[in-house]
Structure formats: C-alpha cells, structure tokens
Design brief:
The protein has about 260 residues and is of the alpha/beta class. Helices cover about 45% and strands about 15% of the residues. It has an 8-stranded mixed beta sheet with strand order 3-2-1-4-5-6-7-8, with helices on one face. The longest helix is centred in the middle third of the chain and has 29 residues. The protein binds NADP nicotinamide-adenine-dinucleotide phosphate (NAP).
Length: about 260
C-alpha cells in the first residue's frame, strides 16, 4: 500500500483517486487551487485531506501525482514544496518527464492512455498506462502501482509518448469531432445518432484487425466525383469549414490509396 497525494482535482485526478483507493492505496491529500474542487473529490475518498496550499513538507505521502492542465505545470512546480521521501510524477501526454527534474528528487510519468470525463466511469483494468522514470527504483514503484489498477502497463519514453499523444488526438479527439459533425447533420432531419452504432462498431473492429487504410471505403477511395460534389454542396450549407475538412480528408484518402497502389 502506497500513500499517494494528488495535485489536481480534475478528470484524471478524480478517476485515478478512486481507482487507486479501490486497489488498496490511500490518497493522503488532494490539492486544487479552488478548494471546493479538492473538497468534492476528498469527500469521495477514505481519509484524504483537501487543500489549496502547495506546501506539502509535512505530508506522509510516498508518491505525488500531478494531474493539472499542461499549461499550469511549470508555474506550479515553482511553488510546490514536497517532503524529502516523496517521488513525483505527472500524467501529461505531451510534457517531457525532465520538467520535473527541477524538484531534485526521483520523478517520472504516469500517463493513462484514455479519454476521461469526470462523471463517466472507465474500466481501468484495460487502460494502457505509459510509465517513465528517472531511475530503476522509481520505475519499479510506478509499475507496482500501475499494475494494481491495470493489466496494460508499458515503459514509454517522453519522445514516444509525444507521438502516442499526437496519434491519440487524431484517432480519438478528431474522430469525436467528426461524430459531432455527423450528429449535427442528422439532427435537423430527426435521425438519432445511435442509428450509426453498428456502422461505427464495424469500422472500429476492422481497423483493429488490419491496417485502417486497407479497409477504407467511401466515395474518396472510389474517386466518385459526382457524389463528393453533392456532399460538398450539402455540407457548405451547414458550414464552409466542414466542407473544407471534407475536401482535405478526401484528398488525404485519395493520396494514401494512390501511394499504396504505387507501392504494390
Ligand atoms: N482528460 C483526459 O482524457 C486525459 C487523459 C490522459 C492524460 N491527461 C492529462 O492529465 C492532466 C490533467 O488533465 P485533466 O483532464 O484531468 O484536466 P482537467 O479536468 O481540466 O483538470 C485540470 C486541473 O488542473 C487545475 N489547474 C488548471 N489550471 C491551473 C493553474 N493555473 N494552477 C493550478 N492548477 C490548475 C484545475 O484546478 P481547478 O479545479 O482549480 O480548476 C484542475 O484541478 C493533463 O496533463 C492532461 O494532459 C488527460
């Protein structure tokens, strides 16, 4: 059992706190610059102390997990005061581990590769957790904690993590935005988005079984210009920006197909 303090009370901190306590660890403190957010999270935990102060010199925590907005990390590190025994990690997909070196102690990264929203439960056992650490003893501690909540634990360098995060933004955040556009197109004609569930599930399953470009379908890969022109006219009425996105993605699909044919 490790004593763990959480710096941050947002999406990641909330999900991590509950998963870690369910796995037998203890959250000692929860920090949020707005104390009410720390209080709200601490109330769901066993015995965590909520705080809006960054002086933790009297804390008994073994591990500090910093889960704050990426843009806030550097400034926060300048104010953070930790007890001598503690190791410190951040949960960012993009920030380098070395940012934590200014704290002069063992440090690392504990990056869960999942999209978290505060009130939507997640299945932690299946979430890949990407770890990195400044030294062997620290990676061993992080691996122990990570494997208590997930069966998918990986050692990933800062450079690899940046590429993973980029790919995740495209595969998850961009795909979600495209679903939003589809949802907006269906809404005025009263068609519910869940009609698309079998279509989206089949697309995901195929992309997990073989390289996605090999299962690409639709007018762009067929070079079906009349259909694409009709779609562009319909889309422009919704939003000229969405029409531009349609054109760019169609171009990328056609170029990918042409490159693949040229290679074979
Ligand atoms: N969300 C995801 O799906 C996800 C997945 C994996 C990794 N991550 C990473 O995990 C970290 C936290 O993300 P999140 O989604 O949990 O963020 P979030 O829900 O937006 O929460 C952000 C936290 O940062 C605090 N914060 C914001 N600006 C601050 C500042 N200037 N000074 C001090 N604290 C500040 C907020 O405090 P207040 O409560 O006071 O506003 C809040 O506790 C990020 O590095 C993110 O890249 C996120």
């Amino acid at each position: 059992m490790f004593r763990i303090a959480l710096i941050g009370a947002g999406n990641v901190a909330s999900h991590l706190a509950e998963a870690l306590e369910s796995a037998g660890h203890r959250i000692t403190e929860v920090f949020s610059r707005r104390k009410k957010n720390a209080v709200m999270l601490a109330e769901k935990l066993y015995q965590a102390t909520p705080t809006d102060k960054l002086d933790f010199t009297a804390s008994k925590a073994d591990v500090f997990i910093i889960a704050v907005a990426d843009a806030a990390l550097s400034e926060l590190l300048h104010q953070l005061q930790l007890p001598p025994q503690a190791i410190v990690v951040h949960t960012s997909g993009t920030l380098s581990m070395n940012l934590l070196a200014i704290l002069n102690r063992p440090h690392g990264v504990f990056y869960p590769l999942q999209t978290f929203s505060k009130h939507k439960p997640v299945e932690w056992q299946r979430i890949p957790i990407c770890l990195e650490a400044s030294d062997k003893a620290t990676i061993d501690i992080l691996a122990q904690i990570a494997s208590d909540i997930s069966t998918n634990v990986y050692a990933i360098s800062s450079e690899e993590r940046k590429q993973i995060h980029l790919a995740a933004v495209i595969a998850c955040n961009f795909a979600n935005h495209l679903w939003h556009i589809a949802w907006q197109i269906l809404k005025p004609i009263g068609i519910p988005f869940h009609l698309f569930r079998p279509l989206l599930q089949e697309t995901l399953e195929k992309a997990m079984q073989m390289p996605p470009h090999k299962v690409q379908t639709g007018p762009a890969i067929r070079g079906d210009i009349p259909v694409m022109e009709q779609h562009l006219a319909l889309l422009t009425a919704h939003s000229p920006l969405w029409a531009e996105i349609y054109q760019l993605i169609s171009q990328s699909i056609a170029e990918t197909a042409a490159r693949t044919v040229a290679k074979t």
